[in-house]
Amino acid sequence: MKSMTCKELGGGCDMRFSASTFEEIAQMSKEHGREMFQKGDKAHLQAMDNMKALMQSPEAMAQWFEAKKREFERLPSTV
């Protein structure tokens, strides 16, 4: 298992997610973001606006995703 925070994944808080794969942790972050969007959390809404801007360029989004995946892969595994 490896852990990353919401902020490390481009979000707006320090909630920690733990998973075996980057895809799993990305899904957890996405679900958390959806919940925070529904609650109208300002920090997460700003983070979502930043992601929307990044998504305007598929190349930039792919580079961001790969960089986060590499960051996850470099993390030490926890029990």
> How is the main sheet built?
2 strands, antiparallel
Alpha carbon gyration radius: 13 Å
- The strand count comes to 2
Mean pLDDT: 94
Instruction: Return the string of H and E elements.
Output: EEHHH
Strand order of the largest sheet: 1-2
Helix content: 55-70%
Low-confidence stretches: none
Percent strand? 5-15%
Annotation field: number of helices: 3
Molecular shape: globular
Q: In whole angstroms, how far apart are the ends?
A: 6 Å
Query: What structural class do you assign from the helix and strand content?
Result: mainly alpha
List the helices and strands and how they pair.
Elements: E1 2-5, E2 16-19, H1 22-39, H2 42-55, H3 58-74
Antiparallel strand pairs: 1-2
How would you describe this protein?
It is a single chain. With 79 residues, the protein is mostly helical. It has one domain. 62% of the residues lie in helices and 10% in strands. The longest helix has 18 residues. Pfam families: DUF1059. InterPro entries: DUF1059. It comes from Sediminicola luteus. This is DUF1059 domain-containing protein.
Main features:
2 strands; single chain; 79 residues; mainly alpha; DUF1059 domain-containing protein; 3 helices; DUF1059; two-stranded antiparallel sheet
